[in-house]
Amino acid sequence: MKAAKRLGAGLMIGALMFSMLGCGNPDTNAGAGGSDNGKVKILYSMWGSAADGSKTQEVADKFNASQDRIEVEVQAVPWESYMTKLNTLATADQLPDSGMMKEDGVIQWSTEGMLNDVSSMYEGSESQPLESLAYKANGKTVAYAAANEVLLLYYNKDMFDKAKVPYPPAVLDKAWTWDDFVATAKQLTIDKNGKHPDEAGFDPQSIVQYGASVENLPWQLETWALSNGGGYYSADGKEVRIGEKPSIDAIQKVADLYLKDHVAPLSVGQTDDGVQRTVIAGTTAMATNGAWNVGTSLNTAKEEGLNYGVAVLPYMQDKVTINTGGANVVFSQSKHPEEAMEWLKWYNSEENNWSLISSGIWMPTLEKWYTDEALTRKWVENPNFPKYEEYKSAVVDYARSSAARPAAWFYTNNTTDFNTLLGSILGDVWTGKKSAEEVITQNLDALKAAHAGSN
């Protein structure tokens, strides 16, 4: 069987949230079939340290004790060598039964025959995840995200209060237009003399407080191409659309926040730490990024005195946010796919990942947590989150609204190579050396080749 290509960097959050969970015996081979006690043995792979792994094995042991047919053993591999290990096992026909898969690799592995169809996992069950969290290849569901995440707008309430500027809207119907967003950012951008970008004498070289920051990692940047009526790909993920004017114009608008509007700091789109560098650092009034930041960084900042809020994203033409989530998969080499699916179905349930959900790192995958007020309050009404009504509107309701669209890697192949190339060519756009139109037009054939998996 053909071994899959080595995957590029996915969400930083994927490493973080799973490093809190997993390990086992990395040298144990799949396919043993049974354990000493007569149960079907299922191996589950993940990235993490030995200490992390013992915690995940404790979770698996609860599953093992809950029934008498299946025994799960956790198999952990360090993050740096995880995909190398999986590729080696794939070549030897010794992949584990199930395991973690980075978002940008799911469709690629599926098209190469490495993943099992899991469309039947939730048949007859009321616990099926939101449809937007299903990874689909050729019309078949090949994985479900273990958690939900959406992109939001975070902001420093104290900065808004000091400037006497209204907070960003938490309600989708009142979302700012892009022009509203830029105009507000100008009110919150200040140079060393206290002047704003639209005032005479403003010095863009001596800004002491920026109004806004838009995270420009390639996968997050797709939000604005979609919002402007374009996108990276066609709706089925088969064709590249990034060369169309709406997509190019959207990327340029993001760059112009720094280059022309002078409301954003320079960001070269290489690291997923925008909230830490801006809102938490106290240098910027508002910043876009994912919901996971509530648990990974904002809780600590809140304890240290940060007064922050959450809002829906502004929009260009259409109201859009992207949702995503790292996948748990069943490998096609498993001799026990049904048992592997039973394990993942149990493992993906909210009650078995509650610490990650209640801390704000993960969002639930089941619709009932978004529609049943009692469950929503159980999830959100705790000190780890902003005020309930604000978070419910800007995050919980937002995630189920018409604005929420799945990230391209839920249905598009070779997003690793595409995003890697896109990130490299956009460097000159962020610094103003070239326009978005120039670099995308010049590299469009290469981007199409990356999408086709032929570069």
UniProtKB/TrEMBL annotation:
Gene3D superfamilies named in the record: Periplasmic binding protein-like II (3.40.190.10)
Classification via InterPro entries: Bact_solute-bd_prot1, SBP
CDD domains: PBP2_TMBP_like
Signal sequence extent: 1-24
UniProt keyword list: Signal
Origin: domain of life: Bacteria
Organism: Saccharibacillus brassicae
Name the UniProt record assigns to this protein: Sugar ABC transporter substrate-binding protein
SUPFAM superfamilies: Periplasmic binding protein-like II
